[in-house]
Amino acid sequence: METILSITNLHKRYGSLQALKEVSFEIKKGHVYGILGPNGSGKSTTLGIVLNVVNKTSGTYSWFGGKVQTHEALQKVGAIIERPNFYPYMTAEQNLKLVCKIKNINYSKIQEKLELVGLIERKDSKFSSFSLGMKQRLAIASALLNDPEILILDEPTNGLDPQGIHQIRAIIKKIAAMGTTILLASHLLDEVEKVCTQVLVLRKGTVLYSGPVDGMSTNESFFELQSKDNTLLVKALQTHPSIETIKEADGKVFVYLKTALEAADLNQFLFEKNIFLSHLVTRKNSLEEQFLELTKTNKTTTQN
C-alpha cells in the first residue's frame, strides 16, 4: 500500500519548551487517520511542520515515498489548519472561483465540490450570511478543488453545534469513501472514534499510542467480581500471583492482572478457597477509559 506521508523522529523546540519529541508514524493511502490528544499535545505543531508552515528542530518527513520535493507534494494536499477565511462580501461560488484562479484549477470543479459539502443551494449566498458550520463546509469544498490525494483537517468540528458536527463528520466519511486519504487532528475522542480507522495519541509532544482505533481498548482486560463476603474475596485474591491490583466500588471487586489469567482458572482458584462467586465478568477498558489513562497530565504547559 502506497505511503502518503512518513515521519521519523520529529522534534520541535520553542526555546526551552519541547513541543514534539521523537514523533514517528506513517500514513498509508486510503485510510482515515486521527492525531488525538489534549489541547497543547503537539497536534497542530505536527501538522504545521509537514505542511511547511512551521520549522522542525530535527527529524525527517517525506511525502509520497520521498519521490517528490515538499513544495511539489503539497500541490496534492488539501488542508484546513485555521478558521475558514473567505471574502465576506463575495458569494460561496465567487470565493471558490477566486481559489480556482489562484491555484489554476478549472471552474468546473466548483459545482461538484459544493454538492459534495451540501452547499449547492447556497452558492449565490454571501459568505457573511453563513453559519460557522457552513463556513467550515465551504472551506472543505475549497480544500478539495484540486482533488487532493490527502485532506488534512485541524479540529474540523471545533466550535460547532451538534448539527454542524454531525454534518462535518458525514462529509468526512463521504470523502473517505471516495478514496481520499484523510488526516485530522482532534482533542475529541468521540470524533476520532467515529470517523478514523487509525490513530496516533499524543501527550506533551510524545507518542503514547499508534495503531488501529479499536486497538486502544484491547491493551488491558480486568475482572469484575462479587460474592456474599467481598472482604474474604479480596483476601483470597491478594494471594494469587497473577493479580497486580484489586479495587472495590459499588459492591463489586475489580481485579487487574500482571500476567494472563483465564476467568475459569480464577473461578476454580476461589472455589478451592471456599469462596463462591455470584458475579464474574471479564471486561476491557473502554476506548474513553484507555484514552483518559493514556493522556493523564500534570500542570506542565505545552505548545499546541
Automatic annotation (TrEMBL):
It comes from the Bacteria. Residues 5-229 form the ABC transporter domain. GO terms for molecular function: ATP binding; ATP hydrolysis activity. InterPro entries: AAA+_ATPase, ABC_transporter-like_ATP-bd, ABC_transporter-like_CS, P-loop_NTPase. Belongs to the ABC transporter superfamily. This is ATP-binding cassette domain-containing protein. Keywords: ATP-binding, Nucleotide-binding, Transport. It holds the Pfam family ABC_tran.
